[in-house]
Amino acid sequence: MDHAGCASAVSGKGIDKMQITVQTYAGYKGDERPVSFSREGRSFLIMEIVDRWYDPDHNIFKVLTDDGRTYLLRHDMNADTWELEVARLLGNEL
């Protein structure tokens, strides 16, 4: 399932706004987890969900992608939108 939303990513110059589209695995609970996402025309395959957090309004996933980076993806359950929170190189902790 595709989901689009406005995302924010941390960069050396501050916060950049960009569009993010997330492909999700839809199991018996609906959109259970992200499997890939794209931004600025580039696709990222999620190799591993390293961790996840839940609160009443959001699901947050710490994911490792095929580019060797770790990202935090935040799903707003009420608005059904996704945000790209943080990107780090492999080996650097979030």
What does this molecule look like?
- The protein is an all-beta fold and 94 residues long.
- The chain has one domain.
- Helix content is 0%, strand content 77%.
- The protein contains no helices and seven strands.
- The protein has strands at residues 2-11, 14-27, 30-39, 42-54, 58-65, 69-76, 81-89.
- Strands 1-2-3-4-5-6-7 form a seven-stranded antiparallel sheet, with no helix packed on it.
- A hairpin with a 2-residue loop joins strand 3 (30-39) and strand 4 (42-54).
- The chain is globular, with a radius of gyration of 12 Å.
- Mean pLDDT is 78; it is low at 1-17.
Give a brief rundown of this model.
The protein is mainly beta and 94 residues long.
SSE order and pairing:
Layout: E1 2-11, E2 14-27, E3 30-39, E4 42-54, E5 58-65, E6 69-76, E7 81-89
Antiparallel strand pairs: 1-2, 2-3, 3-4, 4-5, 5-6, 6-7
List keywords for this structure.
94 residues; mainly beta; seven-stranded antiparallel sheet; 7 strands; 77% strand
Q: How many domains in all?
A: 1
Query: What ranges have pLDDT less than 50 throughout 5 or more consecutive residues?
Result: 1-17
Radius of gyration: 12 Å
Major β-sheet strand ordering: 1-2-3-4-5-6-7
Tell me the number of helical segments per DSSP (H or I, 4 or more residues long): 0
Oligomer: single chain
Percent helix, as a range, is under 10%
H/E element string? Answer: EEEEEEE
Mean pLDDT: 78
Beta-strand residue fraction = over 45%
The main β sheet shows up as: 7 strands, antiparallel
- State the distance separating the first and last CA atoms: 27 Å
Number of strands: 7
Shape label: globular
Structural class: mainly beta
